[in-house]
Write a structure and sequence with these properties.
The complex is a heterotrimer of chains A (about 625), B (about 300) and C (about 375). By secondary structure, chain A is mainly alpha-helical. Chain A has 28 helices and no strands. Chain A is globular and about 80 Å long. Chain B has about 300 residues and is mainly α. Classes of the chains: A mainly alpha (about 625), B mainly alpha (about 300), C alpha+beta (about 375). The interface between A and B is large, with 146 and 124 residues. The complex binds adenosine-5'-diphosphate (ADP) and magnesium ion (MG).
Chain lengths: ~625, ~300, ~375
């Protein structure tokens, strides 16, 4: 090395300094700062330039509050949410490995010339297929002017509907052709690019796309799923519920039995010296993971009937005539409904055909009392629960909010449907109960309601209304579910929201960095190993178990560590964008955000959350290193 | 995976002159040469999987082209919007200041990227090419902070930015992102692969440190710089948490925030939301297409995004 | 042009690893000196200290009359060719060669002229616009050489410049290097681990070893002197192919003479002229060394040495393996305690194996070493 150490230090500092200053200020400094913060009661609402209260050192009080004290129920609730969402990680890793293996395997024509030829053939065949699809599906079935009878398409020409369907089929055929042709011409790189796309685009835009995909109605996923469920319906309903319980319990027993067997075998290997303690530890972990998955899925199977995938009773079909008659009677029977009757009427008209006489009468009485202003507390609450917690939030806010601006802001924060906004904004505290009632509108099933609205609310553009309602529609089971098996209300229903996020997470991440790492790992395996294994007579699966998997162990090790670290910290954006924290999707980071950056700005408490997370991450990483790296060496 | 049966020609081939192994392609050994069937199956599998990644985007485009939000329902039932409406993209710009969001995101991400690449490459040079007392200890500090989860930094950084008066300002979004321990680490690893004899040769040729850095190391570390630039750009372009807590003015909103706001205001108008999100996805896609080669290499170097 | 003097130089890496110690070499102006030794013995370290790439821990280095210990490499007026050539991959050959000149603010015209002249000499004119990646190993080597030449330095430094070439190219390039040196007459320090390269290229060679836990210079002399009169057992064993046969034994006195005796059948009577030198070692351990070419066949049934050999010993060996080399054969044999003695003999098709054969040992080429890996040569 040239120059004296001192001189070199000087030069090095010139190069390093810009980065070092930032590093100290925004990385190392904050880390140390944050430890300190976590032992104080610092909250921006209490400690700011306008207050003379000073920040107090509170020792481990923050940690106490979180782990065992008054915040502990939230903390642990969100902790388990985070852990449950991390189920997606092993699934994603397995998927990444699968994709990598497929991308690494030889696929398509062997010769380069065959690739181009194949692509050309694919284009030609695809073009012909598009034509054929169009011919088969194009609108010759119906005559012009005949209206469609399908739900939701009632005002369209059948011919138009057929044409749309046909063009969609052609479009999908064309896309498929494109994928095949480019895949043939370009090879695996093309697929790798496609798989990587979601990772590249991960962000709010992507989450919005998935939010749209997940919409219970009008979302692509349910649009694809529902027809299958409709077909399955018969089978499922023919199955005695008992069978599901039995099936679920059987899986649970199977899982437990496997646990016993595997442990016994592990102990045997350990005592006979076939495997070291590290191997045994690995076995315990893997078995527990597998068994938890098994037992979990068995449990879900027993719960299926309970969580309402299968409606236990079918609501009465909507009858327009009955709705009409109820509505005609309304003003006479309940004069208190007054001017605004038409809106509440719509609700009642919707509910009427579905409820028995007694229930309907109670409902109507309640409704009219709402307008009387004499509504008893319980009734109000009943309405409220029907209208979900959002309404209570509105009330609380409106009780506080005085000026118009404040109200507008409150509505902003609540993300109130623009349709309802003008009405809400005009309301004074007293008319809130009405609003509560009206709000119910958007929580019930939309389709028949929209139809009813069309007849009942001439001044509103029913179609527009329908569209907006669609987005807010919650499937309140029993109130709203249609006949038969229903696809889940993914992001809205707490029973499904986590599943939805997991599925999305896997889709987003499966083709990302992990897959590329596995690809690199695969291409680093010496082909001689496979040749030797093949000569030794190993089958494809055995070669995977004895060559690929162990050779990839360091890669897997790295991926598992990085993914768990990422997983424990992740989930915030998804929850904020897609569920706004509803449906039990709040994770630790979200909690930290809530603590630190909303309401009270409790920076001290939030820092404690961060450090507890760090402790967990550190423990997991250390554990991984201790056992994982030994596994890699075994 | 091939079937073990296909290995048989291996044993026979070298010792039976005159009889060639039948199907094996000249450049692949018989066990490697998968059967036609497995090649086809793998390809079909790839196509099917590929479709599950493509179709959501197709759907997104279709919605973005739907004229009226109420027709989205028709779309899900028939697969096609009743009428194609390219005007939605323009509508997004009319409804909210989408151009401003775009500008903010690109502006912040570009500056953060440029500064990060500069500071990290210089620091990486100091760590990889100069021997100075205490170097390894300082580097260990850098490495150590890589293990600290990002959430730990959020709260104190918020306080620091607040204290420096950079809250609700471009600088608050750019300056903290201009340094990166991770980027330094990545570039250092990259620079270590450049043989030291090159700077020695340059040194004998008469180059000083700055010249070695700018004329030898930087050009050779270009793939690494590009990888870091891509990561930094994507990270800051998609960054959500940071702008969320550090801005409050509408005209400072970045795309992710703007999109979220747009969604909460116009949520029911799915067609507009999809048009907006589609546009927000364009820059990363363009970046990727142009720089794919480097990105894949970079990730395989062990540089995992995050 | 300049002479280089390296005085008592030592290098300690990072305060711990002592890489070389007490290196003393005087290199005359225009001389071609080769540092040779097994890998890890500190050849590169020494060379890099001359270049200024490593700080000198102890001792001094002068280039010309200037003390260069604290002089920056660029100011030492040297040029260096690296083992991996260290061509800047992102520059064309022309740029690569002219880089150093450009940094010295030489007018572009002159740079071009010099580069083209060097390229012409080295036969790489066609490649000037290519990048290093587009060149073969030999071509890259020439570019690296060209880069050094255009600078017209007073000292050339080479660190194993040929070891990345294939065997044939290595030999031809070696010759060209020699020619180049004869033409330019630039002082040259050349590092290699290849003894053949050292012997053929060097005006003088510096044999180094790492055997004593630190890099050390064992001998500095002309190639022939080093070959004929190795200073110690290490140098003797290091130079020559097949290597010198060295057998451990004792020095004994009998029949009025001094004998090497391994007590298992190999007895060699030392020449009387060394008696005074050796007498003090009688009864102590010594090792005998003789090159394969020091042996020849002893005529069947006679007790006379072959023609032209003044003073010979007859030794008895059992040939085990014959390796024909054309004009000669290498015979591996057992001899006394030694299981593998190699003798290079005149070719003979029917050379017997697995039976006793007598060979004559030319005493003019026999060495006697003090015990130990670095035992000094007692008689030369
Ligand atoms: N940068 C270094 N740091 C520490 N030890 C080194 C360094 N470079 C070389 N060495 C040690 O110095 C000794 C000599 O190395 P070197 O000069 O490269 O040997 P040669 O070129 O003869 O093969 C070796 O033992 C080597 O391990
Ligand atoms: Mg060397």
């Amino acid at each position: 090395m040239i120059g004296t150490p001192k001189k070199r230090l000087g030069i090095a500092m010139l190069f390093l300094l810009p980065n070092l200053i930032g590093f100290l200020m925004f990385t190392l400094g904050p880390v140390l700062f944050s430890i300190g913060m976590s032992f104080t009661d610092w909250a921006l609402t209490k400690h700011n330039p306008y207050s003379d209260e000073s920040i107090r050192f509170v020792g481990i009080q923050n940690y106490e509050r979180l782990l065992v004290g008054d915040e502990s129920h939230l903390f642990w609730d969100y902790f388990w949410n985070t852990v449950i969402l991390m189920i997606g990680i092993p699934i994603g890793i397995a998927g990444s490995l699968g994709l990598a293996i497929m991308l690494h395997a030889k696929a398509g024509p062997a010769k380069p010339s065959g690739r181009l030829k194949g692509a050309l053939i694919a284009v030609v065949v695809g073009a012909i297929a598009c034509g054929a699809v169009w011919l088969v599906m194009s609108p010759h079935a119906a005559e012009a002017g005949v209206k469609s009878t399908e739900i939701g398409l009632a005002d369209m020409d059948q011919q138009k509907v057929d044409a749309l369907r046909a063009s969609f089929a052609v479009l999908i055929t064309a896309v498929l052709t494109g994928v095949v042709a480019i895949g043939l011409a370009v090879g695996q790189v093309f697929f790798r690019t496609i798989f990587y796309l979601p990772t590249l685009l991960a962000g709010v835009a992507m989450f919005l796309l998935w939010k749209a995909l997940y919409r219970p109605q009008g979302g692509m996923i349910n649009a694809v799923l529902q027809p299958f469920l409709d077909r399955l319906e018969g089978i499922v309903f023919a199955t005695p519920m008992m069978l599901w319980y039995v099936l679920g319990i059987a899986i649970v027993i199977l899982g437990l039995a496997y646990f016993g067997l595997s442990m016994a075998r592990g102990v045997r290997n350990l005592s006979s010296g076939d495997a070291g303690p590290a191997m045994f530890g690995a076995r315990v972990i893997l078995t527990i993971l597998l068994v938890v998955t098994l037992v979990g899925s068995g449990f879900v199977a027993t719960q299926l009937p309970l969580i309402g995938l299968f409606p236990t009773e079918k609501p009465a079909p909507y009858s327009q005539s009955r709705a009409q008659s109820v509505l005609e009677e309304l003003p006479d029977q309940f004069p208190a409904l007054g001017d605004r009757a038409h809106v509440d009427s719509a609700l009642i008209a919707y509910l009427a055909p579905r409820l028995d006489e007694q229930a309907l009468r109670t409902l109507l009485e309640d409704a009219s009392q709402l307008h009387d202003g004499t509504v008893p507390e319980e009734t109000r609450e009943a309405w409220m629960s029907l209208g979900s917690g959002v309404m209570s939030e509105i009330i609380v806010l409106f009780d506080k909010a005085v000026s118009d601006e404040e109200r507008a802001e409150a509505l902003d924060r609540l993300k109130i449907d623009p349709l309802v906004r003008p009405a809400l904004q005009e309301l004074d505290g007293a008319s809130l109960r009405e609003a509560a009632a009206r709000r119910v509108l958007v929580w019930v099933d939309v389709e028949p309601l929209a139809a009813a609205l069309q007849t009942l609310v001439p001044e509103a553009d029913a179609k527009e209304l329908n569209a907006r309602l669609l987005d807010n529609a919650i499937y309140r089971r029993g109130l709203s579910a249609g006949d038969g098996l229903n696809a889940p209300a993914w992001l809205i229903d707490a029973a499904w929201a986590k599943t939805a996020l997991i599925v999305m997470g896997v889709w987003l991440g499966v083709g990302g960095g992990n897959m590329l790492l596995y690809l690199a790992g695969l291409s680093n395996i010496a082909p001689e190993l496979y040749e030797a294994a093949a000569i030794d007579g190993a089958s494809g699966w055995q070669r995977f178990i004895h060559v690929t998997w162990p050779q990839l162990a360091p890669t897997t090790f790295f991926i598992v560590i990085m993914s768990t670290i990422g997983g424990l910290q992740g989930g915030f954006e998804q929850a904020l964008v897609m569920t706004e924290g509803k449906a039990d999707t709040i994770v630790l980071t979200y909690y930290l955000y809530n603590l630190a950056f909303t309401d009270e700005f409790q920076l001290g408490l939030a820092s404690a959350v961060a450090w507890i997370m760090f402790a967990i991450i550190f423990a997991m990483t250390a554990f991984n290193f201790r056992y994982g790296s030994r596994m890699t060496n075994d | 995976m091939t079937k073990p049966a296909s290995i048989q020609p291996v044993a026979g081939a070298p010792f039976t002159p005159g009889r060639k192994p039948k199907k094996a392609a000249p450049d692949t050994s018989p066990i490697e040469a998968s059967s036609k069937l497995s090649r086809t199956l793998v390809f079909v599998g790839l196509v099917l999987l590929g479709m599950t990644f493509v179709v959501p985007f197709v759907w997104q485009v279709l919605i973005a082209l739907t004229e009226n939000p109420s027709e989205v329902d028709t779309l899900t039932r028939t697969g096609m919007p009743p009428a194609i409406e390219p005007g939605n993209f323009a509508k997004v710009f009319q409804r909210v200041d989408f151009a401003k969001y775009f500008f903010n995101s690109l502006f912040i991400a570009s500056w953060a990227t440029i500064l990060q690449v500069i500071t990290c490459s210089m620091a990486a040079y100091a760590f990889s090419r100069i021997q100075w007392p205490g170097r390894d200890k300082v580097f260990l500090l850098y490495l150590g902070t890589l293990m600290v989860p990002g959430v730990v930094l959020m709260v104190p950084n918020f306080a620091i930015v607040l204290g420096l008066g950079m809250f609700n300002d471009y600088t608050g979004l750019i300056i903290p992102a201009a340094f990166s321990a991770y980027g330094t680490f990545l570039l250092r690893q990259f620079m270590l692969t450049i043989p030291s004899s090159l700077d020695e040769a340059a040194s004998i040729d008469g180059a000083g440190h700055w010249r070695i850095f700018s004329q030898i190391i930087l050009p050779l570390a270009r793939p690494g710089l590009i990888v870091l630039a891509i990561f930094a750009f994507l990270f800051n372009y998609n960054s959500f948490f940071w702008p969320l807590i550090l801005t409050k003015d509408d005209n400072l909103r970045t795309l992710p925030l703007g999109l979220l706001q747009f969604d909460s205001t116009y949520g029911p108008e799915t067609n507009l939301i999809m048009a907006a999100s589609l546009m927000a996805m364009l820059p990363p896609i363009i970046l990727f297409i142009v720089l794919q080669k480097y990105l894949v290499k970079g990730i395989q170097l062990g540089a995992v995004k995050g | 042009m300049a002479h280089v003097s390296i005085k008592s130089v030592a290098k300690v890496y990072e305060g711990k690893v002592r890489a070389v110690d007490d290196v003393n070499v005087e290199i005359a102006d225009g001389e071609f000196v080769v540092l040779v030794g097994p890998s890890g013995c500190g050849k590169s370290t020494t060379l890099r200290m001359v270049a200024g790439l490593e700080a000198i821990t102890e001792g001094t280095i002068h280039i010309g009359d200037r003390l260069v210990n604290d002089v920056h490499p660029k100011d030492r007026d040297i040029a260096m060719v690296f083992q991996n050539y260290a061509l800047y991959p992102h520059m064309t050959v022309r740029k690569n060669m002219g880089f150093g000149l450009a940094l010295r603010k030489m007018p572009k015209q002159e740079i071009d002229q010099r580069v083209e002249e060097a390229a012409r000499q080295l036969g790489i004119t066609d490649m000037l616009e290519r990048k290093p990646k587009q060149l073969s190993g030999g071509q890259r080597q020439r570019v690296a050489l060209g880069r050094a030449i255009v600078r017209e330095p007073s000292v050339f430094l080479f660190d194993e410049p040929l070891s990345n070439l294939d065997a044939k190219l290595r030999v031809t390039t070696r010759t060209e290097l020699k020619k180049l040196h004869q033409r330019l007459k630039t002082t040259t320090i050349y590092v290699t681990h290849d003894q053949e390269e050292a012997m053929t290229l060097g005006d003088r060679i510096v044999v180094m070893s790492a055997g004593r836990g630190v890099g050390k210079v064992e001998q500095v002399d002309t190639p022939l002197n080093v070959y004929r009169h190795p200073k110690n057992r290490f140098v003797a064993g290091f130079l020559g192919l097949p290597p010198m046969n060295i057998v451990d034994g004792k020095l004994a006195e009998s029949d009025n003479g001094l004998w090497f005796d391994d007590e298992q059948g190999l007895r060699v009577r030392m020449e009387d002229r060394y008696r005074d030198q050796l007498i003090s070692r009688v009864g102590g351990p010594v090792a005998i060394g003789f090159r394969p070419s020091a042996m020849s066949e002893w005529g069947e049934g006679t007790y006379l040495p072959p023609d032209g050999v003044q003073n010979a010993n007859r030794i008895t060996v059992v040939p085990r393996v014959i390796e024909p080399l054309g004009d000669s054969i290498d015979v591996s044999c057992e001899c006394g305690s030694a299981k593998n003695i190699v003798a290079r003999l005149a070719a003979r098709a029917d050379f017997p194996t697995n039976q006793e054969v007598h060979l004559s040992l030319d005493m003019a080429h026999v060495h006697l070493f003090a015990p130990g890996e670095f035992g000094e040569n007692l008689i030369h």
